[in-house]
Amino acid sequence: MKQKLTIMVAVLFFGMVCTAQAAGTMDDAKALVDKALAFIKANGLEKAIAEVNGNPKGQLSKDDIYLVIQDFKGVVLAHGGNPKLVGQNHWDVKDPSGKYFVRELVEVAKTKSGGGPVDLVWTNPATKKVQPKTNFVKKIEGKDIMVMAGIFK
Predict the structure, then answer these.
(1) Which strand ranges, in their side-by-side order, compose the sheet holding 145-152?
(2) pTM check: above 0.90
(3) CA 131 to CA 85: how far, in whole Å?
(4) CA dist list (Å): 122 to 45, 88, 137
(5) 10 Å Cβ neighbour count for 28?
(6) How far apart are CA 84 and CA 65, in angstroms?
(7) What percent of the residues of the chain are helix, what percent strand, and what percent coil, each to the nearest 5?
(8) Quick one: DSSP state of residue 7?
(9) pLDDT digits (tens, 9 = 90+) for 64-122
(10) What is the DSSP secondary-structure string of 41-77?
(11) Contact 144, 104 (CB under 8 A)
């Protein structure tokens, strides 16, 4: 019995260590947003949208973190986690907790020049479960468009 318990504990611990290493951090999310903004500045918005939509595990992603590019009216222009959302307007979409999260993302992007975090609840594409998430959002300079990346908790 003791040997089985030791093996179970070791398996659980190893599984938690692997999960912790695979999950990105908020610093990773911020760095990815900054990388996307630099990519947009160097290559243009259309190429960034194509990269996010067409290459979800490419240079504009990190571990389990994906980018979303959305205009200030709520229209999804690119979505690295669920490309089926591209073209949809989420202005009036509430997260499962009842929060109009896109409105808050737009407000933060408009008013905080260095960007900022927004907490919400959303379906994790990896687990297919609704989980708490924090998105870090920044405005694209000169446009009414924002770039965001987040981490599930």
Answers:
(1) 76-79, 67-71, 145-152, 130-139, 116-123
(2) no
(3) 18
(4) 26, 16, 16
(5) 17
(6) 17
(7) 40, 25, 35
(8) H
(9) 899 999 999 999 999 998 889 999 999 999 999 999 999 999 999 999 988 999 999 98
(10) HHH-HHHHHHHHHH-TTSTT-BTTB-EEEEETTSBEE
(11) no
At residue 59, the pLDDT reads 86
Residue pair 145/72 in contact by the 8 Å Cβ criterion: yes
Q: DSSP 3-state assignment of 126?
A: coil
Whether residue 21 has pLDDT greater than 70: no
Beta partners for 120?
Answer: 133
- How much is the average pLDDT of 43-57? 92
9 φψ region: left (φ > 0), alpha (ψ -120 to 50), beta (else): alpha
Tokens at 138, concatenated: 């920044």
CB distance 122 to 143 below 8 Å: no
CATH topology of domain 25-152: Beta-Lactamase (3.30.450)
Statement: residue 4 has pLDDT above 90: no
